[in-house]
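quick one, 341 residues, struct below
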Amino acid sequence: MRNGRWLNLRAVPRCLKSILMAALAAMLLSTPALAQTATLEELISAVVKIKTHINPEGRTVQGLGRDREGSGILIDADGLILTIGYLMVEAYAAEITTNDGRTVPASIVGYDHETGFGLLRTIEPLKIKPFPFGKAADVKEKDVVVVASGGGASMVVPAQVVGKREFVGNWEYLLDEAIFTAPAHPAWSGAALISREGKLIGVGSLIVGDAAGTKGHNPGNVFVPIDRLAPILGDLLSEGRPSGPGRPWLGMNADETHGRLMVGRVTPGGPADKAGVKRGDVIVSVNGEATTSLPDFYRKIWSKGAAGAVIGLDVRNNNTVQHFDIQSINRLDHLKLKSTF
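---
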């Protein structure tokens, strides 16, 4: 999640940067309505830097750290900031910095594990025009887009959509369709994916080595489509989390290795840990059905119903097959989302 070294925007010669920004402005402002009402700087002013401070007892501290930095996007006139959730989950304090250098404290609003979205709100309006929403569903492969992270024009780069396909993460995370872009932006966490019409179509999540899915070396970024926000926005604003029991969560990371699913990590105190699953176990079947791919494994777990369902898991270790009945939970109930210290 930290900035990578794929592209050093600050090292771009000033003359080349000017040409690049002129090209970006021409692309973004090619729509007549936008050209009449906005400049490039005005469009990206809604992309801000964020810094969060995490509860030291948080479950995510070991993997993600206590102090996190990235970007967020202003989406309403009252200071509501959309970002990628791993930057703010279990945070007790946050601040945002605008492109003109203002730093404003922000409160924690909500988090959704299924999409990966997180929300913050500044303690006072930023007096910046919010970013308008586009439709990720309308984006097509080979479309030219722009990726912008907090920090102003120097952190804006053109990219191309190189894929719209399933994305699976070994932390019990699956998007039926994510947006993949290339080349890679070095400050991807919470970055804005912007259509040629100047509208927000995705939020930056990850960097990957094969964005095009061709099994070659093609570094790029993964974005969560903005269309996933509307169905949960009301719940995040009112409750801080989606309503309902949520999906079953086991608390184990699994990886596809040589045609097998192997447990790479078991969350201490999580359902799988309590049941006796160990790192290195090879997953044989779930609910009595064989599975060898991570997406299929997750879908078989979630097909059992809501969080709280008992998941039958068969694993092999040292040529011995063991069966576990795991009492699943909602992952949000495992996190320290509202704790104080």
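Residues 202 and 225 are 4 Å apart (CA to CA).
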